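Dear colleagues,

As part of the handover before I leave the project, I'm documenting each prediction I ran so the next person doesn't have to rerun anything. This entry is a single chain, and its sequence is reproduced below.
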Amino acid sequence: ILGGLTSLSSASSSDTDVLYKFIQSQELVREIDAALDLRSMYRKPARDPYFALSGDARIEDLVEYWTRMVRIYYDPGTKLMSIEARAFDPVDAQRISKEIFARSSTMINTPSAVARADTTRYALEELDTAIARLKTARQALTAFRNETQIVDPSADIQGQMGLLSSLNTQLATSLIELDLLAETTRDTDPRVEQARRKIVVIEKRISEEREKLGVGSNRDGNAYADLVGQFEVLQVDLQFAEKAYISALSTYDVAVAEARRQSRYLAAYIEPTLAETPLYPQRGTILLIAVFVLFGIWAISVLIYYS
């Protein structure tokens, strides 16, 4: 007995145990009474003071009467529960059985839905946070591109480097031409002045392009290297937000799948049936018990009288 009590105290309540208590609860009796009018069903036998429900029965009396009319048989080994609903009309008994099953299904499925919601709520919160972070990162990158009119600074800087290389080549060619002219012509030759002016223009252009790359400042007052650094920071934030979003989405999908696997449903292995033969009241048994009780009272009375 002690071992059995220990195992019972350590075991958690199963759905069947909860359902066993729920079917006998005042809540269920009140709901079914509101749906089917149990009081009228249980008052059908006229002038029956013993089996019928009294006319002034309160909810507590109705619950006590319910425990007499609805019998629950539970097999702990198979975890199966059988319910026998009694009434004064077979149709009423079947309606009560169906209503019990419907209300019990709702009661079992409600905690399951709550458990699924709790399981997925935290994953959904993380997913919403990841989505918000991803949106913020994309908006920041879009704002940077709109402000600087640069889609990809990496590609832009490659073009700038190519332009610098071309200008340096032109500068070297112009210097060579100037040296050749200086050896073959006088300083007053117009070609020498033109070559010098060309070199000054090329050097000025090279200086401006270098300023764009970070040595000086560009037209907007921002060093090109700083713009590249800002773009790289925004790009890293965007990549991190995308990875966090993918991870949160995967976690949410796993949580939803796990919650679906843990769903519990109430299924009837035998649907409520319609009785054809009344089983109660067992008149022969009641009559026999009454005879024995009356005989016992008579025998005791006789003994008391003779004593």
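The longest helix spans residues 90-148. Residues 3-12, 215-219 have pLDDT under 50 and may be disordered.

All the best with the project,
I.
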